[in-house]
Design a protein that fits this description.
The protein is α+β, with helices and mostly antiparallel strands. Helix content is 55%, strand content 8%. The chain contains 25 helices and 12 strands. Strands 1, 2, 3, 4 and 6 form a 5-stranded antiparallel β-sheet that branches. The longest helix is centred in the C-terminal third of the chain and has 33 residues, at 564-596.
Length: 603
């Protein structure tokens, strides 16, 4: 791309790009309209309709991919969002054809010639080429995404690093795109409610991601938050090679995608253990630290073989800084190509993997370590809001409707509070007080009774700015991780087990939370430690009880669907009747899990 001008937004550029997107939208509208007509035709068989629908999905997904590749930037970002949004809705939410087509943009977007990228590098490093700054640098990138591409390099001191280079034309294109989107967004007011702030919010978030020094700081804070965990690795930043548009980190080998169960098994990992680890890490970020990775799609979250603990001496002189290669190996031989690394939240070691594999690897799989990259966007949750969110989740797990209502109103207001728990987990239906009229309205594609578009707008605004926290962004992040977990068929009950554990710890005194120093932990009274252990056990029991209640009451679903009065007449007595049995089974399940599951499953 030619060097862009430095002045204000290029409305012609932005409008031209937007018009191409709108033309594709109109084409898709016609294609799917024709499908509706085909479905309405009595002569169309179900099989014929399914074939036609799949063909339209496949064709339109391919055209969306080509548009995103051609435009890059914000269009790639939007495509990444769609590819990662599935989150459990299956093909009813985002058709599989779109997910499969657009997921390539998470780390294999079209890349640009090295000489073009090097001009941007020279602007950041006083006219010096990357070929001069580093001993060697691979001119073909190892990964390319929406904002930048990554090149492997070696410093003059011999340190292997990954250099993330921002596209030189990106700021110019984004400025033009957002100028047009802001203009169009100001004209779109569903129900008379102005949602133009969504465009502005997206612009603020994306602009923050363009500051690679900010990304470096986010990564360093994440590493500090999780430094007590050997099962997490945040690649260190090499600050002397990092600027606003260039980010250099340590290079990590042996990375495997987390959203492909077959690939995990081929590499020797148990998808269930990987899922438990992901649930644990992101639950701790949210409920304990209130510092939440804002973009944890499958291109930013990987797993590798967990290195052995660092020896107590002889490691102080290790060099800082490398970023994970986004190249992923699917075979066990190459994906276990592990070498000595250092880094926040896990460290490293110098042995061959075979020397530190768990003796139970044949049963539980290899010991995984999550590697987190791309720390450009984070959401900070205030302590008060984080504590309220912990209380809400525990109220839902305890099936306490009144407490759930109180805390849900804190986030969703008086009109829509009953739906908020279901955004977190469908298992929270027992606490959500959703009526049959609500469900029937949803089946018709209508708003719930008594809810207007203005209420929806207020709900979105309240989530967007809840006490200074962007809870909408937090929920977006949770949707990303849930999408990964659903892709590997990780059980919802185990995800909620992690929620229960870290929501409980998030409400504990600071000295009793994960990551505190040994000195602080030593001063915790024995009685307090026992109470914490009891609270954690109780939380796990409540999740297991919720699982059994859902299992036992599922056969009653047809009766509950008749009316709210029948549902109320049946549900409460049935729940009370089965509770003793449910808690007995839950206690057995928790004890059995403690005896048979790998210790990672309790994290």
């Amino acid at each position: 791309a030619p060097a862009p001008p430095r002045s204000g937004p290029d409305m012609g550029l932005g409008m031209g790009r937007a018009m191409m997107a709108m033309a594709l939208f109109e084409k898709g509208k016609k294609e799917y309209g024709a499908l509706d007509a085909l479905k309405a035709d009595p002569g169309t068989s179900a099989e014929a309709y399914e074939r036609a629908e799949e063909e339209v999905h496949r064709r339109m997904a391919g055209e969306c991919l080509e548009l995103a590749k051609q435009h890059g930037g914000i269009y790639n970002k939007a495509a990444q969002f769609v590819a990662s949004l599935q989150g459990g809705a299956g093909d009813r939410g985002i058709p599989k054809a779109y997910v499969e087509a657009l997921s390539v943009l998470t780390d294999k977007a079209p890349f640009h010639a090295f000489d073009e990228m090097d001009k941007c590098f020279q602007e950041e490093f006083d006219g010096r080429s990357a070929r001069e700054v580093f001993r060697t640098i691979d001119e073909v990138p190892i990964a390319a995404a929406s904002l930048a591409q990554v090149h492997r390099a070696v410093t003059h001191e011999g340190l292997e690093v990954a250099v993330k280079m921002q596209y030189p034309w990106l700021r110019h294109h984004l400025q033009a795109d957002f100028a047009v989107f802001s203009m169009l967004g100001g004209q779109i007011k569903p129900g008379g409610f102005d949602l133009g702030w969504l465009v502005k919010d997206f612009q603020v978030a994306l602009t923050a991601e363009l500051d690679f020094e900010g990304e470096a700081s986010n990564g360093e804070r994440c590493a500090a938050d999780l430094k007590h965990r050997a099962d997490v690795m945040v690649p260190r930043v090499v600050r002397r090679f990092t600027t606003k548009r260039m980010l250099t980190t340590e290079f990590v080998r042996g990375l495997v995608r987390c959203n492909d169960a077959e690939e995990l098994r081929n590499a020797g990992f148990s998808p269930k253990r990987v899922g438990a680890l992901l649930s644990s890490v992101f639950a701790e970020m949210l409920f304990v630290h209130g510092h939440v990775h804002g973009d944890p799609h499958a291109g930013n979250v990987y797993v590798r073989l967990r290195p052995p603990p660092l020896p107590p001496t002889g490691t102080a002189g290790l060099p800082a800084g490398i970023a994970p290669s986004s190249s992923v190996s699917s075979s066990s031989s190459s994906s276990l190509n592990w070498q000595h690394q250092s880094g926040g939240g896990g460290g490293g070691g110098g042995a061959h993997p075979a020397q530190h594999q768990s003796t139970s690897a044949a049963v539980y799989g290899l010991d995984p370590q999550v590697v987190l990259i791309d720390h450009g966007l984070y959401h900070d949750v205030s302590d008060d809001l984080r504590s309220d969110f912990c209380r809400l989740v525990l109220a839902c797990i305890n099936r306490d409707p009144e407490s759930t209502r109180v805390h849900s109103e804190r986030f969703a207001g008086s009109e829509l509070h009953r739906f908020f728990p279901l955004i977190i987990s469908p298992w929270f239906v027992f606490s959500a007080r959703v009526t049959m009229e609500d469900l029937r309205a949803a089946q018709r594609g209508a708003l719930p009774p008594g809810v207007s578009l203005a209420d929806i707008g207020k709900f979105l605004v309240s989530l967007h700015d809840t006490g200074g926290t962007n809870m909408l962004g937090v929920l977006h992040s949770m949707g990303y991780t849930k999408g990964i977990l659903n892709a590997i068929k990780f059980p919802e009950g185990l995800r909620l087990r992690a929620f229960a554990k870290y929501a409980t710890l998030g409400l504990a005194s600071p000295a009793m939370r994960p990551g505190v120093s040994a000195a602080a932990a030593a001063h915790v009274p024995t009685g307090s430690a026992i109470l914490r252990a009891a609270a954690l056990w109780t939380a796990a029991l409540q999740v297991e009880a919720l699982s059994w209640i859902i299992t036992v009451l599922t056969p009653l679903t047809p009766l509950l669907a008749v009316s709210d009065s029948i549902a109320d007449a049946i549900l409460a007595p049935a729940t009370l009747l089965v509770s003793p049995t449910v808690y007995f089974l839950a206690a057995l399940s928790v004890a059995f899990a403690f005896l048979t599951e790998h210790s990672d499953m309790a994290t």
